[in-house]
UniProtKB/TrEMBL annotation:
Transmembrane segments: 127-147, 159-177, 183-201, 208-231, 237-257, 264-281, 287-305, 317-336, 371-390, 402-420, 426-442, 447-468, 480-498, 505-522, 534-552, 564-581, 587-607, 619-642, 648-668, 688-708, 758-775, 787-808, 820-840, 846-866
Protein name: DUF2339 domain-containing protein
Species classification: Bacteria, Pseudomonadati, Pseudomonadota, Betaproteobacteria, Neisseriales
PANTHER family: BLL2549 PROTEIN
InterPro entries in UniProt: DUF2339_TM
Coiled-coil ranges per UniProt: 29-56
Region named Disordered: 75-101
Keyword set, alphabetical order: Coiled coil, Membrane, Transmembrane, Transmembrane helix
Record Pfam families: DUF2339
Length: 874
């Protein structure tokens, strides 16, 4: 039956009932404010007249008494209309001596009925009289029973005494009210009298069998009608409710044992018609609610015990009458401004009628399709009532009008789940949601806009609920894909409508629509393609969608539509990670085309939006794409190294550096030569975007120098000309260029090391180069302890460090930097210390002698070519 739809229907009724009740409270507060202000003005006028009669100056008298409540009401209340200002005072009839009671008019009864809960109205008035009447009723009932049990007095005399007592109570109570004396007492006394008369008729029929069921039924009904008529004449709503309850109880009290519902329903038709006649002139909510509840209670009690399939027709006819009567009367009375129309503007009647009616209809319906037709008829019916109220354009009817519209939408929403499957239901609700949202936007009604959005959320939830039972069928042409696309289309249409209200309000709807669009493409590729192909297809689908939205957004000047391109960057990272997990590298299968092209699309979107000055989070998007490109280069080169040279260990190690190296080089050269995409944000690429790859390259340079011997490439090892040394030299040069660029064009508020600090890394590289030469050419195992005790390595370190120191000193002399010359000299001192404390262990050997002579010659050359620069040049 579509339980989700039924829950939505119930939730809508509760929400609308709260709206109606809140509006009712606001109307009551408005009426109360009006009366308080009128009373205050009347008091002021009376004070002035009294002062004039006494011959006093009005201004000299004390100000009228005021309370904080009155002052607050006067400050916050809106100006009175002419009708409100002319409202006459509540007439007060002088009570008898010593009795402060007043006679309530119809206005007072109405205010009491609408302002207090039912239990408070029962306790209001003369409470002692009510308690006494109740006790008297039970006392008479006990007396009649005792008289019957013990044979006291003849039966006719017992019944006559009871009838006289009941009639006397009714007559005396009527007299009190008519005389305007102790009105509440009189009404309570009349209620007790009618109760005793009901009791007498019941004893005559049940205990003594003086007449049959039909006369008893007629007497019960006459007593109820008479009680209501007396209540109308006296403005006694509680008495009317009591009499009406007795009239509804008549079929139960005079039950004949027959299960035929025709007489019962015909009688209920007359009673409810009678209620409508009374309530047309009396603003008695209690009377209307009593009729509503008694009809339901007695009718359902009959149905539980006696209903059979043979009674379907007459039961259906009465249900339609009951539903139609209690649903149309609030509208008709409001349209014709009946005197008692406010008594029908109650959430219990407005929302309880369709709720109870549809619940009973669900029990009478043969199947879900018959119930679907009933929901459709109810939707059209309530929409017709809404049209009647909407065309009046009356502000006072707005709440009731919205209630009818909400009920029409709620019943219309129920049609699809009762008649169709999940996909059709979701589609219907989505389209309905767009229609309701359009109405809300056009009429500037927030409630309608909220309901329209809620219907689309409900459509999505119901679609997911029925997803396991849907048919996949052919690719694209199947229930799942088309359903999701329809939800996405409804979302985009809603976003376009909401854009006319506020572009910020349209953003959630836009994200909702795009999420369903992406889910449609992703789920379709997942069902029909293997994982290796599904990821690139989904990535291409999303990238092309965002490109299309960018073009459309630029043409329609819809910035939010263009800003959806922010989502492409996380999608690129997710797709790359998925390809890595399932294909062992990021360009597996069709990703070799999809990922680079989508990354290019990302930069194209970024460039267009930067040109228009509409880009959001440009630094994050530039850096995110930049890092992904470096990761892609390293990852693919490593995979190619493993694939093309399975036994070579050097290529994956070099691949770890080539990605960040190429990225850092692009940042430096792209900034200098204005190459895209660096030219769009040069400081972002040279600064924030380069910090991570630069740190990575420093760590890689130190790790690889000590951990790898430079072999494993499949090529013979040639110092400086092998792939390992060439890559390390490129890393050193690029780091130097990167830091040198900040000396020429500093990064604001961000201190970085000077470019000459790269010399430390160069010194480490030279030392590791000596170790690799000793390993490859001297056959020394590439282990730290073995290399350190190698005479060959120590001699090479001595020569290389000396060459480095002399080169630094010559360079310092040439450029006049005294600090660099001092650093070279310090390195020479280290070499000297090394000759004395480390290399001395190999004294007398050919290597030690050759290195000592070489160092001496180099020092002599340095003394000639690299004198100390003057201090002022340093």
């Amino acid at each position: 039956m579509g339980w989700l739809g039924l829950l939505l229907f119930l939730a809508a009724l509760v929400f609308l009932s709260r709206l109606g009740s809140r509006s009712g409270v606001e109307q009551r507060l408005r009426a109360l404010e009006t009366q308080v202000l009128w009373l205050q003005r009347e008091a002021e006028q009376m004070r002035q007249e009294l002062a004039a009669l006494k011959g006093q100056d009005v201004d000299a008298g004390p100000p009228p008494a005021s309370t904080p409540l009155l002052e607050a009401v006067e400050e916050t209340a809106p100006p009175l209309t002419d009708e409100e200002a002319a409202t006459p005072p509540l007439p007060v009839i002088e009570p008898a001596a010593g009795t402060p009671a007043t006679v309530p008019t119809e206005t007072e009864a109405t205010a009491e009925t609408t302002a207090m809960p039912f239990w408070q109205r029962l306790l209001a008035g003369n409470l002692l009289a009510k308690i006494g009447v109740v006790l008297l009723f039970f006392g008479v009932a006990s007396a009649l029973r005792l008289a019957a049990d013990y044979g006291l007095l003849p039966v006719p005399l017992r019944l006559l005494l009871g009838t006289v007592a009941g009639g006397a109570m009714v007559a005396f109570g009527w007299n009190r009210v008519h005389q305007g004396v102790r009105t509440h007492f009189g009404i309570a006394l009349q209620g007790g009298g009618f109760a005793i008369l009901y009791l007498i008729v019941y004893f005559m029929h049940v205990r003594y069998a003086l007449f049959g069921a039909t006369p008893a039924f007629l007497l019960f009904a006459l007593l109820g009608v008479a009680c209501v008529l007396l209540a109308v004449a006296q403005d006694g709503v509680v008495l009317a409710a009591f009499g009406l309850a007795g009239a509804f109880a008549a079929p139960v009290l005079a039950a004949t044992g027959s299960s035929d519902p025709t007489p019962l329903f015909a009688y209920f038709v007359l009673l409810n018609t009678f209620i409508v006649g009374v309530s047309w002139f009396k603003n008695w909510r209690l009377l209307n609610v009593t009729g509503f509840l008694m009809t339901i209670g007695v009718g359902m009690a009959w149905a539980v015990e006696h209903y059979r399939a043979d009674y379907h027709g007459v039961s259906q006819a009465f249900l339609l009458f009951f539903w139609g009567l209690y649903s149309v009367m609030p509208v008709l009375m409001a349209l014709f401004r009946a005197p008692g129309w406010a008594g029908w503007s109650d959430s219990t009647l407005v929302f309880g009628t369709p709720l109870v009616g549809f619940a009973l209809q669900s029990q009478l319906a043969a199947d879900r399709y018959e119930l679907a037709w009933a929901a459709l008829a109810a939707a059209l019916y309530y929409l017709a009532l809404w049209v009647l109220l909407f065309r009046r354009r009356d502000e006072a009817l707005r709440v009731l009008e919205r209630c009818q519209l909400g009920l029409g939408i709620a019943f219309g929403t129920l049609v699809a789940p009762l008649a169709f499957g999940a996909q059709v239901t979701a589609a219907f609700w989505a389209v309905e949601g767009v229609a309701v949202l359009w109405f809300g936007v056009v009429q500037r009604r927030k409630l309608a806009m909220i309901c329209g959005a809620g219907l689309q959320v409900a459509a999505a939830a119901y679609f997911l609920y029925g997803l396991p039972q849907m048919q996949t069928g052919l690719p694209v042409i199947n229930d799942i894909f088309l359903g999701m696309v329809l939800l996405a289309g409804a979302g985009f249409a809603s976003a376009r409508l909401l854009r006319g209200v506020d572009e910020r309000v349209a953003i959630p709807a836009l994200l909702w629509a795009f999420a369903w669009w992406v889910l449609a493409g992703w789920s379709e590729s997942e069902r029909h393609l293997p994982m290796v192909q599904s990821t690139p297809v989904t990535l291409t689908y999303i990238a092309l969608s965002l490109i299309a939205l960018e073009v459309l957004g630029r043409r329609s000047a819809w910035n939010a539509l263009r800003h959806l391109s922010l989502l492409l960057l996380p999608v690129l990272w997710l797709a790359a990670g998925s390809a890595w997990l399932h294909g062992q590298h990021m360009l597996a299968g069709l990703m070799v085309l999809a990922l680079p092209l989508s990354l290019a699309g990302h930069y194209w979107l970024l460039a267009r939006q930067q040109v228009d000055g509409l880009v959001l989070w440009p630094s994050v998007r530039h850096v995110g794409g930049f890092w992904l490109g470096m990761l892609l280069i390293s990852g693919e080169l490593a995979w190619l190294g493993f694939r093309l040279a399975p036994g070579a260990t050097l290529w994956p190690v070099l691949a770890m550096a080539l990605g960040p190296l190429s990225g850092l080089w692009l940042a430096v050269e792209g900034s200098r030569r204005a190459l895209p995409p660096v030219s769009a944000a040069p400081l972002t690429y040279r600064g924030l975007g380069s910090l991570l790859p630069a740190a990575w390259l420093v760590a890689w340079l130190l790790w690889a120098g000590w951990a790898h011997d430079g072999g494993g490439s499949g090529l013979p090892y040639v110092p400086l000309l092998n792939p390992f040394d060439l890559v390390q030299l490129a890393v050193l040069a690029t780091l130097y260029r990167w830091l040198r660029g900040f000396e020429e064009d500093p990064w604001p508020d961000t201190p970085l090391p000077q470019a000459n600090r790269v010399g430390i890394l160069a010194f480490v590289w030279i030392s590791c180069l000596a170790a690799r030469i000793a390993h490859h050419w001297g056959g020394i195992p590439f282990r730290a302890d073995t290399l350190w005790h190698s005479t060959l390595l120590q001699a090479m370190l001595t020569l290389l460090w000396t060459l480095t120191a002399i080169a630094a000193m010559i360079r310092a002399t040439g450029i006049g930097v005294r600090r660099l010359w001092q650093a070279g000299f310090a390195l020479l001192a280290v070499v000297g210390a090394k000759l004395l404390f480390v290399d001395l262990a190999g004294a007398g050997t050919l290597l030690w002698t050759g290195s000592l002579i070489g160092v001496a010659l180099l020092v002599l050359a340095a003394s000639y070519f690299a004198p100390v620069p003057p201090p002022e040049e340093g």
